[in-house]
Specification:
The chain is of the alpha/beta class. It contains eight helices and 15 strands. The chain has two domains: 123 residues, D-Maltodextrin-Binding Protein, domain 2 (3-Layer(aba) Sandwich); 93 residues, D-Maltodextrin-Binding Protein, domain 2 (3-Layer(aba) Sandwich), CATH 3.40.190.10.
C-alpha cells in the first residue's frame, strides 16, 4: 500500500470512529421538551398506587412518584385517569405520552412498550370473603373466580384454572371485581398483593375487613414482577430517561421511601 493510500485509510477510519461516537452521543442524549405538557395515563382504581378522591383528583404511590419526578426534572405533565386497558391503549395510539398504573414489566409488554427502571416489586394473591370456608386453592374447584383484565394476577389465575377446576370472569376495574365477590357471584378474586392488603386494612376502603388473602404467588415466580413506567416502543425516549433520572434522585434523597411509607406500612 502506498503512503498516500495509508493516509487516506487512516483518515477514513478516523471519520468512521467520529461518526459512531456522534451517533452514540445522540442516541444517549434524548431529552424532554420543557415547553410541552406530557400526558400521563393511569388507572382509576388501583389503591394504593392510584385512586380517586371525591373531587376527582388522582392520588396514590404512582401519582406521588410521577409528580415528584416531574417537579425535579422540570417536566410539565397532565394526569388522565382512564382505567388500565384504556391507559395502555392511549399510549399505543399516541393519545398519551406515558403510562404509570401499577404496570408489571413483562416480556410480552416489552414488545410494544419501552419500560423505565423498576420502581416497585410486587407479587400477586388470591382472596375470598372473610367468612368464607375456602382455605386454599383446592376449595375453588367447580366455582367462579374474578380477575381484572390485562393484569399479572389475571395471568396467574389463568395459569391454574385447569389444575384447580375453576372458571374465570373478567372485569375492567378492581372495585367492580371486589364487589362481584362480596355479592357472591364469584367466590374469590385475584389481585396484586400490596393492592389487596391495602384495601383490606384501610378503614376507608369499601372492602375493609371483608376479604382475606388465602394464597399468593411465590416471590421468585414469573408472577412476582416489578412495576414500571412505560412509553410506546421507540418513542419518548427522553421522557423515559427523565423518569429514570428522577427515580434515582428520589431514592437517593430518601423521598421514595417516604412516599411508600405514606401508603404501605412495612412490618
Amino acid at each position: 500500500m502506498s503512503k498516500m493510500k495509508k493516509i487516506l485509510a487512516l483518515v477514513c477510519a478516523g471519520v468512521l470512529v467520529a461518526s459512531v461516537a456522534v451517533l452514540a452521543a445522540c442516541s444517549s442524549s434524548a431529552s424532554v421538551d420543557k415547553n410541552k405538557t406530557y400526558v400521563i395515563a393511569t388507572d382509576t382504581a388501583f389503591a394504593p398506587f392510584e385512586y380517586q378522591l371525591p373531587d376527582g383528583s388522582s392520588v396514590g404511590i404512582d401519582m406521588d412518584i410521577i409528580k415528584a419526578i416531574a417537579e425535579k426534572q422540570g417536566i410539565k405533565i397532565e394526569i388522565k385517569a382512564l382505567g388500565f386497558d384504556a391507559a395502555l391503549q392511549s399510549v399505543q395510539s399516541g393519545q398519551a405520552d406515558g403510562v404509570i398504573a401499577g404496570m408489571s414489566i413483562t416480556d410480552e409488554r416489552k414488545k410494544v412498550f419501552d419500560f423505565s427502571d423498576a420502581y416497585y416489586d410486587s407479587t400477586v394473591c388470591c382472596a375470598v370473603g372473610v367468612d368464607s370456608d375456602i382455605a386454599g386453592m383446592e376449595g375453588l374447584q367447580g366455582k367462579k373466580v374474578a380477575v381484572k383484565n390485562g393484569t399479572m394476577s389475571a395471568k396467574w389465575a389463568d395459569s391454574m384454572k385447569d389444575k384447580y377446576g375453576y372458571t374465570v370472569t373478567t372485569f375492567e376495574t378492581s372495585d367492580i371485581m371486589y364487589q362481584d365477590v362480596l355479592s357472591g357471584n364469584s367466590v374469590a378474586c385475584f389481585e396484586d398483593t400490596p393492592v389487596m392488603a391495602y384495601a383490606i386494612s384501610n378503614p376507608d376502603s369499601a372492602i375493609s375487613g371483608k376479604l382475606k388473602i388465602i394464597n399468593q404467588a411465590d416471590e421468585k415466580s414469573e408472577f412476582a414482577t416489578p412495576y414500571g413506567f412505560a412509553v410506546a416502543k421507540g418513542k419518548n425516549a427522553g421522557l423515559l430517561q427523565a423518569f429514570n433520572a428522577g427515580l434515582k434522585d428520589l431514592k437517593s434523597s430518601g423521598d421514595y421511601d417516604k412516599i411508600i411509607a405514606k401508603y404501605i406500612t412495612v412490618g
